[in-house]
Write a structure and sequence with these properties.
Blueprint: H1 2-29, H2 34-62, H3 65-86, H4 95-102, H5 106-129, E1 150-153, E2 161-169, H6 170-174, E3 179-187, E4 202-208, E5 216-224, E6 229-234, E7 237-239, E8 249-250, E9 257-263, H7 268-272, E10 276-279, E11 294-295, E12 301-304
Parallel strand pairs: 2-11
Antiparallel strand pairs: 1-9, 1-12, 2-5, 2-10, 3-4, 3-9, 5-6, 6-7, 6-8
Helix pairs in contact: 2-3, 2-5, 3-5
């Protein structure tokens, strides 16, 4: 009887775990808030971490002695490059705390997603060939050879109230690639000598996956540099409070800001097909500009590889 009861308890626990896993998966099929999307991305990054660690360990057992030495060197270099490119400074050793710290800044999160995906692909290619060999080029081919992962507004702002919009056509992007996007504002230059001199990127995070039911949406951003606030909207509905309220996202006053769009995949095909469309004010906006706000600018954006 005790054995039966114990087996019953195990079976019930397994069912509960499966139900919880299914609920989490369903939530990530159509996450509705930045917090929910960030939680889904955290789960994905943890899975990629496990994949990297497992594949790396298996390669150390199967590769030639020369390739094993080269792989160790390459892995250390990849970690260093990731931390430098993404501006990561966390060094306390607690991996869970590392994830929590990373997800406080969506711009850094997208950077880590991109480099992590690249590493998973590279290690999978090594394992497939059982040697260290570069993978065949899988990135989109572009006329000038430059892959665009970041766009930023051209004119830095230190004061005033500014508005801009970004259209994200989920179904169109879904046909091209799975991607994680950051859209918002960040400091364009460090505040030398100040605490937290690099500040923190603020805005919205977008995740587009093959299995999601997606719509086209317009993200709106009202940047109030006089009062240190960023207000975000989705399809005209303000998230967490409208401009002028105590809601919104707190940002540091007295810093130099630009609008940023960062992507975990090359944006060239998204931009070419207008699946991602930035409007800083060079044409009419989809939604009403909040009272007292001006278009961010009417010039060109700046692309970075």
């Amino acid at each position: 009887m005790r054995l039966f009861n114990r087996l019953s308890q195990i079976a019930i626990l397994a069912l509960l775990c499966a139900a919880a896993s299914g609920a989490a998966h369903a939530q990530c099929d159509h996450p509705k808030t930045d917090a929910a999307r960030a939680d889904c991305i955290k789960t994905e990054l943890k899975g990629s971490d496990s994949t990297i660690n497992r594949t790396y360990g298996e390669l150390l057992k199967s590769l030639s002695p020369e390739d094993r030495t080269a792989l160790r060197t390459e892995q250390r270099a990849w970690i260093k490059t990731r931390d430098q490119q993404c501006g990561l400074t966390w060094s306390k050793g607690d991996r869970e705390a590392w994830f929590e710290d990373l997800l406080q800044d969506y711009q850094k999160t997208v950077c880590v997603v991109r480099l992590t995906n690249d590493r998973v692909s590279a290690l999978a290619n090594y394992q497939k060939n059982n040697k260290l060999a570069p993978a065949a080029e899988s990135a989109p081919v572009v006329a000038d050879g430059q892959l665009i992962y970041e766009l930023q507004s051209a004119q830095p702002k230190t004061s005033g109230k500014w508005y801009f919009e970004v259209k994200v056509d989920g179904p169109a992007i879904q046909k091209l690639a799975e991607v994680t996007l950051f859209v918002g504002v960040a400091q364009s230059a460090p505040a030398a000598g100040a605490a937290n001199e690099n500040g923190q990127a603020s805005g919205s995070i977008v995740m587009i996956r093959r299995n999601q039911n997606l719509d086209t949406g317009t993200l709106g951003f009202a940047l109030d540099l006089d009062n240190g606030k960023l207000y975000t909207s989705q399809d005209g509905a303000w998230q967490g409070g409208a401009p002028g309220t105590a809601g919104g996202i707190d940002i540091l006053k007295g810093r130099i800001y630009k609008a940023y769009l960062n992507s975990s995949a090359a944006m060239n095909p998204f931009l070419k097909t207008h699946a991602v469309d930035l409007n800083y004010g060079d044409r009419g906006f989809v939604y009403h500009v909040p009272d007292g706000y001006k278009p961010l600018e009417t010039g060109q954006t700046v692309a970075q590889q």
